Description:
By secondary structure, this protein is mainly alpha-helical. It has helices at residues 6-13, 30-36, 47-51, 83-91, 122-147, 151-164, 175-191, 195-206, 217-232, 236-256, 262-280, 288-301, 308-323; strands spanning 2-3, 56-64, 70-77, 98-100, 103-105, 107-115, 327-328. The chain folds into three domains: 1-17 and 239-329, no CATH class; 26-118, 2-Layer Sandwich (TolA/TonB C-terminal domain), CATH 3.30.2420.10; 121-208, no CATH class.
Amino acid sequence: MRRIARVSALCIAGLSITTFGQTLLPRVAPDEAAKHLLNKITPNYPPEAELARIQGYVILEIGIDESGVALERRLISGHPLLVPAAIEAVRRSKFRPFEVNGKPTPVITLAVVTFGNPKNNESETRNEVLFQENFWSAEESAQTALANGNYPDAEQHLNRARDLLPPAPESGQHRRERWRWVMDMGDLCRAQKKYQEAEQNYKQALDLRPGNDKNAPEIAETLQSLSRLYIEERRYDLARDDATRSVAIYQKNFKRADSHDQIARKRFGRAIAYQSWLLLSLAPQSNQRVEIKKQCGTVLEFQTFLDAADQASFVPICETAISSPAKKD
């Protein structure tokens, strides 16, 4: 009869469930981002839009990486005929890199791309930009307070973010913001060990995925949070199922991410590496060694996305687990 090799036992014994979460990127106001813009890009007016005399604004959330390259993250508002040209204009933009503590760092901001000389929705656009800035400022303050264990302040900021949300429209506008708020409420409940409320919030967040995309990154992040909740509740089978689904979705998003979108690739690669490490602790006894080798292989494949200290700790364990043969009784 074969038994699990000694390395597997060592692997599990030395394994800790990391408290890894999504890395928060700093957000900067559009006016501040404009000061870093090195080349002002005039968008190409789509002929069909110009022919139809369509004017207006396209609001995009964009990421600017450490080298100053900008890419769209998501569409906030804009006429469908104008959106592709707005995205293309953003991709041709170049920014002076932003710095935190003297080191280049990726940031998130808003880009407002103008087509024609629109006046009819100028106020609406300005209000939307203001909402985005205020909502995400409150949300980030809540996450900071939560990370510091200051639950009353976290709840206060989340209440402020909730009050900023307009009534849910049939169009699904602000779905991303609603999802984020529900997720943060789940995180707050989980931190306070209100597990039933946390689970309700996370499951509600699953229903707020953008459109009908079953592989949306938001689904992966929600499943990731559910898996951590189930681990705290010692519901390990549920934790393993949701963590496995989460990794699969993150991997699909990593593969389809633009090769130039380093912000997205780092986000997904980091999540894959840490979720796979977590899955090592959840390997079922029936095929523990097979599962450990599988997850260690994934950790090694995405090791460059780990924090330096974790990389130094995780990599030797995984290399040993993969190379060590199983022993017989």
